[in-house]
From TrEMBL:
GO molecular function: DNA-binding transcription factor activity; transcription cis-regulatory region binding
InterPro entries, per database record: LysR_HTH_N (IPR000847), LysR_subst-bd (IPR005119), WH-like_DNA-bd_sf (IPR036388), WH_DNA-bd_sf (IPR036390)
Protein name: Transcriptional regulator, LysR family
Similarity field: Belongs to the LysR transcriptional regulatory family.
Listed PANTHER family: HTH-TYPE TRANSCRIPTIONAL REGULATOR (PTHR30126), TRANSCRIPTIONAL REGULATOR-RELATED (PTHR30126:SF88)
Length: 308
């Protein structure tokens, strides 16, 4: 039968151990902790007595960690870090901050801007859980209407909500350089496009919107834009994509803009919409500001994702 051994070491005693090691001695540890040297020595003595082992050994005029002391020192550091994070977490909740923020962001919004804003938010609010829904078309609106998101980035503002303009997205028609459309050697019409396979991203909502579809008989529908872009790079079809989403593929020669007879550009304005607008929590408001700042910084650099 194994007997339970209860060793009661206070957090303050572990803090004293770490301070002695980090400061290089009892005198400097006492100064760092704002205590007398005798109080520090007594705390270490009591720690060793309760543990039943020597934590330090004397080498000349200095105290060095024993093998056991080195192991305990590393664990004490981890323990103090955990205690600090626990206190910060308690302060986070006592200040009224939320435990999580749910976002719904349309797939046409540049991912690198999302990551930039979230990374900055994580630095100031590391304990807030982020739940990100990557949506398409009506799926973004519905996440807001159903209450599944505190904030969304969408190309439409549902009735009853207020949105702030965020950025304009430019779409261009592209296909692989070896695609038959590029082999025609002339400007293309929409009738030309209808004779070839169009790649379409599925509406993640319940309305099954078909924005951008030209009515082509040959149509592949996928659930994510990255899959659609991969299909286009493989020569399996053409599509209109946000210019910012395919800049690298175009630069590498995997995709090439189609030479349309009439204007080939399409645009979509994106809006940042908070579910409760003026009643949003401080965390949601701060995150919204970081998204706006990320877009502003990006556009100030010329809007090139390769240099952002």
């Amino acid at each position: 039968m194994v007997e339970d051994v209860k060793v009661q070491i206070t957090l303050e005693q572990w803090q004293t151990l770490v301070a002695v090691v980090d400061s290089g001695g009892y005198a400097k540890a006492a100064e760092a902790l704002g205590k007398s040297q005798s109080a520090v020595s007594y705390a270490i003595q009591r720690l060793e007595e309760r543990l039943g082992i020597a934590v330090f050994r004397i080498e000349g005029r200095k105290a060095a960690l024993t093998e056991a002391g080195e192991a305990l020192y590393r664990q004490a550091q981890s323990l103090l870090d955990s205690a600090r994070l626990t206190e910060e977490l308690a302060h986070h909740y006592s200040s009224g901050s939320e435990a999580r923020i749910r976002l719904a962001i349309d797939l046409i919004f540049p991912e690198h801007l999302t990551l930039c804003a979230l990374a900055r938010y994580a630095e100031i609010s590391p304990f807030v859980r982020i739940e990100l829904l990557e949506t398409a078309l009506s799926g973004t609106d519905e996440a807001l209407i159903r209450g599944d998101a505190e904030m969304v980035i969408s190309s439409r503002i549902p009735p009853g909500f207020v949105g702030d303009f965020l950025m304009r997205i430019r779409f261009v028609p592209v296909a692989h350089p070896d695609h038959p459309l590029h082999q025609l050697g002339r400007s293309l019409t929409h009738d030309d496009l209808r004779r070839h396979r169009q790649l379409v991203v599925r509406d993640s909502g319940s309305r099954s919107l078909n924005e951008g579809w030209l009515g082509a008989d040959q149509r592949w529908t996928v659930s994510h834009m990255s899959t659609s872009i991969l299909c286009a790079c493989s020569g399996l079809g053409f599509s209109w994509y946000p210019e910012l989403k395919i800049s690298k593929e175009v630069e590498k020669g995997l995709l090439k803009p189609l030479p349309m007879e009439s204007s080939s550009e399409r645009f979509a304005d994106l809006y940042l919409i908070k579910r409760d607008a003026h009643l949003s929590s401080p965390g949601v408001k701060r995150l919204a500001e970081l998204f706006q700042s990320a877009v502003k910084d990006f556009e100030a650099k010329g809007g090139n994702p390769l240099t952002a």
